[in-house]
Design a protein that fits this description.
Helix 1 packs across helix 6. Strand 1, helix 1 and strand 2 form a beta-alpha-beta unit. This protein starts with a strand and ends with a helix. The chain is built from seven helices and eight strands; from the N terminus they run E-H-E-H-H-E-E-H-E-H-E-E-E-H-H. It has a single domain, classed as Flavodoxin domain (Rossmann fold). With about 200 residues, it is of the alpha/beta class. Strands 1, 2, 3, 4, 5 and 6 form a six-stranded mixed β-sheet that branches. Strands 7-8 form a two-stranded antiparallel sheet. The protein binds flavin mononucleotide. Flavin mononucleotide binds next to helix 1, strand 3 and strand 5.
């Protein structure tokens, strides 16, 4: 089972990408494999012009298709999600997230645009037919401190929310795997063949 984190921050030292790395570590503790794709993995032209023949774009679409679930990772930019994330999402074909649960991870300078997750991001994920959109986690910059080349320091409340989100996401993914593995037994015949032939004999009399 593999989860793909789609990271839409154009910042080289992205807070949101670091939050995604943190959640990925938690998922891996539950034996869920994770991988990550960021806008930096693409030649800018391939992204801007939606070049579906670019090898990186083809590889991205294959990763999305093969993922059992997706993490959508973005900063708030101008009261919505980052434009670079939209460029990535626009590459995914209609219904491309069908059957996949999604966990959004968003960060912003303040709580002012907390609802960007609901009014801007969720409609896009719904249009892509994500099976379940988890509530997600919104982090404010002051809750995440970055140490040069070191691990991020998370404020206690945020850490708790990230752990809860990772636990819910893992639980759903693992439950989904059990459902797929379950093969229902063939339906029992409502009436046995002997009973049916007896019934037809009685009716003909
Ligand atoms: C161009 C730009 C626009 C931003 N617009 C907003 C905004 O509208 N609301 C907000 O709360 N934060 C805004 N911010 C702050 C970022 O959302 C915040 O610093 C975020 O944690 C950055 O995440 P990143 O390091 O992953 O890029 C903006 C930052 C930039 C660079």
């Amino acid at each position: 089972m593999k989860i793909l984190a789609i990271c839409g921050s154009p910042s080289r030292h992205s807070r949101t990408t670091q939050l995604a790395d943190y959640v990925a570590t938690l998922l891996e503790q539950n034996h869920i494999e994770t991988s990550k794709v960021s806008v930096y993995d693409f030649p800018p032209q391939a992204l801007l012009y939606g070049d579906f023949s670019a090898p990186t774009v083809k590889a991205f679409l294959q990763q999305v298709q093969q993922a059992s679930g997706i993490m959508i990772v973005t900063p708030v930019y101008k009261a919505a999600y980052a434009g670079a994330l939209k460029v990535l999402l626009d590459l995914i074909p209609a219904g491309g997230l069908e059957g996949k649960p999604v966990l959004p991870l968003v960060s912003g300078g303040s709580l002012s645009h907390l609802l960007a997750l609901d009014y801007a991001l969720k409609p896009v994920l719904t249009a892509l037919k994500a099976s379940v959109i988890h509530q997600g986690v919104f982090a404010v910059d002051s809750q995440v401190s970055r140490v040069q080349d070191g691990p991020i320091q998370l404020e206690g409340g945020l850490r708790k929310r990230l752990h809860e989100a990772a636990a819910d996401f893992s639980q759903q993914l693992l439950a989904g795997r059990e459902i797929k593995r379950f093969v229902p037994p063939p339906p029992l015949p409502l009436m046995s063949d002997r009973f049916l032939s007896l019934f037809s004999v009685l009716r003909s009399k």
